[in-house]
């Protein structure tokens, strides 16, 4: 029997460039697009509604703006992400924007959590099933705080807004979550975290510091892993370009670690300022690893050896099965493509 998708071929497909930060006005313009119409800015397609034939062409040959009629938007009214560290730089602002859409979710009284400390509760949003244990403090004087469904904030931890603790996540006892932080769905975090984004299913369960960083899905930071986010001489941070392998000055003073999916650190790991780490890496050392770690790497000190793809997939599947998540063919193919494009 054919699947529903096979029986019902795609008619029109909406392409959206995820580098453009969504706004209400931009969403309204996208909703009004007709077939084979698109929005562009500075020769970049923001969004386009295309026929299935053009969709198939773009999948195999890349986006061709000549296939659509274009409406040029003013770049001054748009926010486009050009560098990975911009994700945590705008995170607090986006949390405030998102929570402004959830007026009815605000805490109307504190009686449900009588032994927790909720400062400025009208700026705290708590979903059904969330647990705020005795002694935990949610401090929303400087920005809102979101606590998702079935999330747990353990005793004596502190969360400062703007921050988001998403569905099913756990903030461990005594954790310190500073402003502009997002803990994605089904994460476990502890220690000290400041201006960090954790995507789903990632863990930093123990003590250690993470600041001005982005961690992908299924990452695991061993106990007492610490990220440096500021150089000792207070100069701007240099990072390695992912394509050219050449170092360049970002002009930024605070950049910690950018880490891809399924990468892990051993206990007592130290990550240098401006570390870029790909997917499926294992970093274990009593010294700083390199600031640039290619995908599918095992790193001990300064030594980098390739991580065999089959072994990486085996570890990946085991980790995902612990959360009852299956490795899909599409995800496998994505990882295979990344592996084949990695050079040491």
Shape: globular
Radius of gyration: 22 Å
CATH superfamily of the largest domain: Hexapeptide repeat proteins
CATH topology category name of the largest domain? UDP N-Acetylglucosamine Acyltransferase, domain 1
Number of helices: 7
- The pLDDT mean sits at 92
What is the fold's blueprint, element by element?
Blueprint: H1 4-7, E1 12-16, H2 24-31, E2 37-41, E3 44-51, H3 52-61, E4 69-72, H4 86-89, H5 91-99, E5 117-119, E6 124-126, E7 131-132, E8 137-139, E9 145-147, E10 152-153, E11 158-160, E12 163-165, E13 170-171, E14 176-177, E15 181-183, E16 188-189, E17 192-198, E18 203-204, E19 209-215, E20 220-221, E21 226-227, E22 238-240, E23 247-249, E24 257-259, E25 264-265, E26 270-271, E27 275-277, E28 282-283, E29 292-293, E30 297-300, E31 303-306, H6 309-321, H7 329-341
Parallel strand pairs: 2-4, 5-8, 6-9, 7-10, 8-11, 9-12, 10-13, 11-14, 12-15, 13-16, 14-17, 15-17, 16-18, 17-19, 19-24, 20-25, 21-26, 24-27, 25-28, 27-29, 28-30
Antiparallel strand pairs: 1-3, 2-3, 22-23, 30-31
